[in-house]
Amino acid sequence: xxxxLTGRIAHKSPDxxxxxxxxxxxxxxxxxxxxxxxxxxxxxxxxIHTSVREDAIQLYGFRTRLEKSFFQLLISVTGVxxxxxxxxLSNIQPxxxxxxxxxxxxxxxxxxxxxxxxxxxxxxxxxxDKLGKLDVSSLPQTEARGIPAEDIIDDVISALLNLGxxxxxxxxxxxxxxxSGGAGVEELLKQALKILMK
Length: 198
What we know:
Elements: E1 4-12, E2 16-21, E3 24-29, H1 32-35, E4 43-52, E5 57-62, H2 65-75, H3 82-91, H4 94-103, H5 106-110, H6 117-127, H7 149-162, H8 167-175, H9 185-197
Parallel strand pairs: 3-5
Antiparallel strand pairs: 1-2, 1-4, 2-3, 4-5
């Protein structure tokens, strides 16, 4: 079972990276919270959750142990698989997620794509008492980093589609973006998600 990987970033996109570990390329699925923290190139270490199914082995990577712990808490909930857990962490920061779970904020949780009211209630019911084991205050603040301008819109579209938004919703979000001032993909994704969460 792979639990940790250190290697060079061979490719980076909002939903996954390819990590070159001594000549072997590992495709690692990541949430935005990790994407924001990764450099465009160079060597990084990721905490890995290995998901084994009958038809596939997938790696999910996180910049911190705490992010990985949140992910593992989420997939312990009935009906929440690794992809949905990753999408949840991509739509809401772990600290805000902990607050929503702790206060029973069904409205906030059910506004996340892929999470209906029943799933939101299940998340609160099954995780509320487990949050005390996690130190949310130690979560790192995200830092925006730019990427080449020609790739930005494509990455934003890809990320939104991967998060479960439909094409009409993505077009609506793109129409409300302010791309002036050389905004990077992270900033534009934040803008798009704000538009879609209204």
